[in-house]
Amino acid sequence: MTRPPFLFTLALVASLLSTTALEAATSRLSPGFMKMEPRTRSLQICNNKGSREIAKEKEFSRLDRVVVDAMSNPAIESNVISGDGGAFRSKGQWHQFQFKCILAQDRLSATSFTYRIGDIIPEDQWERYGLWR
After folding, report:
1. Helix (H, G, I), strand (E, B), or coil: what is residue 28?
2. Residue 61 forms part of a structural domain
3. How many domains does the chain have?
4. Which residues pair with residue 115 across a beta bridge?
5. How far is CA 122 from CA 86, 93, 97, 133, in A?
6. Any domain includes 9
7. What is the per-residue pLDDT across 52-80, written as a single tens digit (0 to 9) for each?
8. How far is the C-alpha of 104 from the C-alpha of 106, rounded, in Å?
9. What is the pTM of this model?
10. By the 8 A CB rule, do 119 and 97 touch?
11. Is 38 a domain residue?
């Protein structure tokens, strides 16, 4: 018995959609990213999510860098990374921020990133924190 073309196509689509979330996530990540030590990879995921979230604010739409561990090491508990020593650069100025980043169960993406922006970091402190122009 031959399958009607529609049912065959539907079965093919269903089998393609059955790949696991891990396979789908890792296929989008570069091989170098997957070779990172897990803590470093988690921080990078939060940097990326923070960049997307903070850049939504009109005042910081020209944001070009986020470093969640710039001024202090964040706390890491299970899938939650939080701290008050993050820094981001927008229009040539570095700003301090507090944040909470929630990672997905597989720790290959962030499901949430909340933050509170603090003060501008004076340029004479940039070197101390490894920040640059």
Report:
1. helix
2. yes
3. 1
4. 99
5. 14, 8, 14, 12
6. no
7. 999 999 999 999 999 999 999 999 999 99
8. 5
9. 0.78
10. no
11. yes
| Structural domain that includes position 89 | 25-129
Place of tokens 């720790």: 107
Q: Which tokens in the block code for residue 120?
A: 């501008």
Q: For residue 26, which amino acid is it? A: T
Helix (H, G, I), strand (E, B) or coil at 63: strand
Task: Tell me which residue has tokens 């073309």.
Answer: 5
Question: Residue 30 has what pLDDT?
Answer: 77
55: buried, middle or exposed (CB in 10 Å: 19+, 13-18, 0-12)?
Answer: middle
Residue 58 has φ and ψ, to the nearest 5°, of -55, -45
CA separation for the pair 87, 119 (Å, rounded): 10
How many C-alpha atoms does 4 have within 13 Å on its Cβ side? Answer: 3
Q: Over the stretch 29-51, which tens digit does the pLDDT of each residue have?
A: 678 888 999 999 999 999 999 99
Is position 31 within any domain?
Answer: yes
Measured distance CA(69)–CA(67) in Å, rounded = 6
